[in-house]
Write a structure and sequence with these properties.
8 strands; four-stranded antiparallel sheet
């Protein structure tokens, strides 16, 4: 029998997961402190209102990945020293973002 990790499914070390919750409000770009150097994958879950997500420190509505409220996305981390940032898409409505970092 083939195990899931042998078929390419990621296996994460949950004992070292780091979770951060931020609120993007007032149409501002909200940076998160740089992610851990051991992070391989980040999970972004959004509630409240949709947001724009980037790994370069300053988010805008015109660039980045749009993540809709109630959805979650996983991103591979290919470099160290990246700073995730979020911006709510609709002015006057808050986006609540939960970012969880995983290493392998």
């Amino acid at each position: 029998m083939t195990k899931l990790y042998e078929r390419g499914f990621p296996c994460f070390n949950l004992s070292t997961a780091n979770a951060v919750t931020v609120t993007a409000s007032n149409n501002n770009s909200i940076p998160v402190t740089a992610i851990l150097p051991t992070t391989k994958v980040v999970r972004v879950a959004v509630t409240g209102n949709s947001c724009s997500f980037v790994m370069t420190g300053i988010a805008s509505v015109d660039d980045g990945t749009h993540i809709f409220a109630g959805e979650q996305e996983y991103f591979a981390v290919k470099a160290s020293g990246l700073t995730p940032a979020f911006k709510n898409i609709e002015a006057g409505k808050n986006s609540i973002i939960n970012l969880t970092e995983f290493d392998s």
